[in-house]
Amino acid sequence: MQGKHILVVEDEAPIRDMVRFALERKGLTVTEAADVQDARLSIAGRRPDLILLDWMLPGVSGIEFAREIRADANLRDLPIIMLTARAEEEDRVRGLTTAASLLMVAGVGVIVAVEAWIVALSVTLLTLFTLHVLGGVGPRKK
To answer: Is 117 in contact with 81 (CB distance < 8 Å)?
Structure first.
């Protein structure tokens, strides 16, 4: 996990601090944003490897911001873990079908979600590398 850059977009400072502390203990670099405007500026300065995004933010909601990211050709592949206190199944489905890569309900470990994302990323990269070496993808050698 070392070296990964996580953008935490959360309007409640105590939650943001707790998440930052936990992620930094795992060796991750963390940038914080209290709202979507701060998040946009942060992304413009340095693209994160992952966004932890609160659903309910002041002004522009996390769902709206995630849709904005998915509509941007340069950012649409950016993984987003949506953090929410919403526990209704309808809300979970809405969050996942609109833009989030993963939806985490309050009380579920954020670190576990980030570790799962890193494992999935590693498996995907290993699979792509293996296919490339075997000649299944990428430019063919003559």
So the answer is: yes
Degrees to nearest 5, angle at CA 90 with 98 and 75: 15
| Phi then psi dihedrals of residue 140, to 5 deg | -80, 140
Q: What are phi and psi of 19, to 5 degrees?
A: -65, -45
Q: Say yes or no to pLDDT of 59 above 90.
A: yes
Please give the residue that has the higher pLDDT: either 11 or 110: 11
CATH superfamily of 5-133: Response regulator (3.40.50.2300)
pTM metric for this prediction: 0.69
Say what the pLDDT of residue 142 is.
46
Q: Two tokens at 126?
A: 């290993």
User: Quick one: tokens of 3?
Assistant: 């070296």
Domain locations along the chain = 5-133
